[in-house]
Write a structure and sequence with these properties.
Number of helices: 13
Number of domains: 1
Number of strands: 2
Helix content: 55-70%
Oligomer: single chain
Largest sheet: 2 strands, antiparallel
Structural class: mainly alpha
Shape: globular
Distance between the termini: 24 Å
Strand content: under 5%
Strand order of the largest sheet: 1-2
Radius of gyration: 19 Å
């Protein structure tokens, strides 16, 4: 999933077109990563183990990049420590975990749409908890989101039924995503985003090492060859190769692109452009995995997208 919530110092020379390209590319890579992750889950690797692999791989890659390019950005202060730990565990670890649980039970596009309700939750938090000024459009966004979700889950009858547990997990991911955004923006916003992500994924890795110890990791599962499933079921790939794609092209590269885009565009604009992720996720799920939605659910998805767009622009 994409996380466009980092205050980054503006570049001396802004290039908006480059920023749009970077943010859109990040969204596309995340959208494709949903199908890759779902294929890995279908091979038998659990959601906990997949989150563990992604966290450790991303942490190792980001720390290595910083160690070579900017080692001075790595040190962590004592004041930052508890918040970065919460950011890594309550934000990154749980966002991934709930997302993997959700896509194992739902079409990728639907899981992403539900988790992308996080901007709406953040705006509501800003309005009622922080007493910040929020544009009135937040109420329109809330009404649209509830209407769209009602159409998606067949609340009004006529569509295909969806997994209740999958929707619950996706909503859990939305709350974890909102926590992630709030921590990134208001608690540790003074730290540069790449080192924040490096530490966040590192603490997420430590969390998963406690929950599911590495010494019990089913290493043989990574060397197995699995079918790509859906319309590509005649093709196969080793699980380790899919996991490498997930770590590099599904995590490190898109995060780097998104952070770079923030040097050329505002966070709100980047967040809106990154909304291409659920669209791409749904398209890839249809083309690759054979996932599809009926007309009513497609209409609901469109309504939710509009709600997310309004929520992204509701906070001042």
């Amino acid at each position: 999933m994409s996380e466009a919530a980092f205050p980054v110092a503006p570049a001396r020379h802004r290039h908006p077109r480059l920023g749009y390209l970077m943010a859109a590319t990040a969204g596309v890579l995340w959208g494709v990563n949903g199908a890759v992750s779902k294929t890995i889950l279908a091979s038998g690797l659990s959601s906990e183990r997949l989150a563990q692999v992604r966290s450790l791989g991303a942490a190792a890659g980001l720390v290595a990049i910083l160690a070579v390019t900017a080692p001075g950005r790595l040190p962590l202060t004592r004041r930052e420590l508890p918040y970065v730990v919460l950011f890594g565990v309550g934000g990154l670890a749980l966002v991934q975990f709930f997302y993997f649980l959700a896509i194992a039970r739902l079409a990728i596009g639907i899981a992403l749409l539900v988790e992308y309700l996080a901007p709406l939750l953040v705006a509501l938090w800003a309005r009622f908890v922080q007493r910040a000024h929020v544009r009135r459009r937040i109420w329109v966004a809330l009404a649209l989101a509830l209407t769209g979700l009602g159409l998606i889950v067949d609340a009004f009858g006529g569509g295909a039924q969806l997994s209740t547990s999958g929707l619950v997990f996706a909503l859990g991911g939305a709350f974890a995503y909102a926590l992630y955004v709030l921590l990134a923006e208001h608690v540790v916003g003074g730290r540069d985003p790449v080192s924040l992500l490096a530490w966040g994924f590192l603490f997420a890795s430590l969390f998963w090492a406690i929950v599911v110890p590495w010494w019990s990791f089913p290493t043989g599962s990574l060397t197995e060859v699995t079918s790509l499933g859906g319309h590509l079921s005649d093709h196969s790939a080793p699980v380790w190769l899919l996991a490498l794609w997930m770590i590099v092209l599904g995590t490190i590269v898109p995060f780097f692109l998104l952070v770079s885009a923030l040097r050329h565009l505002s966070a709100t604009t980047v967040g809106i452009v990154a909304m291409i992720e659920p669209v791409v996720g749904a398209l890839v799920g249809w083309v690759w995995l054979g996932e599809s939605l009926d007309g009513v659910q497609l209409a609901g998805a469109a309504v939710v997208l509009v709600a997310i767009l309004l929520a992204q622009t509701a906070r001042e």
